[in-house]
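Hi there,

I know you've been waiting on this one. I reran it after we fixed the sequence typo, so this is the corrected version. Both the input and the resulting structure follow.
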Amino acid sequence: MRRTILFCVVLFLTASATASAEPISIVGNHYFQPDEIGNGRIMIVPKPSTFVLLAAGVAGLMFLAWRRWQQTIMLLNRQALTVVACFLCVFICATSVSAERIAQFEFNSTLLPNITSDHISGAISYGTSSSITATIDLSEGHPSPAFFSDGWRFIENYAYFSFDIENGYSLTLDRLEFDSKSENYAGFIGPNSYNVKYRTNGSSFTSISGGWKSLSANNSWYADRTADNGGSPISGLTGTIDFRIYGFGASSPFSYWFHDEVEVFGTVVPEPATMSLLMVGGLCVLGYYYRRQHCIRAGQA
């Protein structure tokens, strides 16, 4: 602590002694110094004596805070510190987790997701908005089976799914990944472009793939097409989250587009209000132990 105080004093004195220009006039407790000679602008800095007073004041405040902290620690027992440490661990774990897979569609035997993480519910079946065929093909997939549908000639068609975030929690969306194959068979050519969008609670849809991206309609599977909002996670998502994977550019309304391994990655964490309640609870417990220890010491005096 003494080294910290000394460092602060030296820092203030150094700042006052390393000005880059000579003073041109003095007014009260301030020097006027040129900032940019070329355009005549100036800046105002405190005099060295004022810096010394500021440094002394800061050092005094730091010393008082240090002494007060020492007295408080002496009144706290080991149990109170353990409680505080536990709440800090909960807070750190809840706010610093890395992105994980929170939903996955493998289309093994159902159009519902086969994996959803904790605090995710209300998932609906995978489907398309306008197609004659939208089902599972047991002979296709990456690996098989896979979802496939037609109707990709027009820009209005899209595959969709959604899920709900449990009350008291929010989602930080990291990315959506999916495998796909665009058909090219006997003159039926599948879509050549795709766009991934999301929305929350019925709001307008927003692209997370950076707009329309190219597809190769060559009857081959491509793994892990990624929509990640340009590498910037989207935080604070609550309620119902809807996803759409648009396709466009097929040569025929009956051309197929196959999807497999559709996965959403992100983190589901308590909302700030929930974390505030946890912190308030921790402070209440800390206050209880502090009061109890103070009463015990007063009774022994």
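Quick highlight: The helical segments are 2-17, 48-75, 78-95, 272-300.

Best,
R. S.
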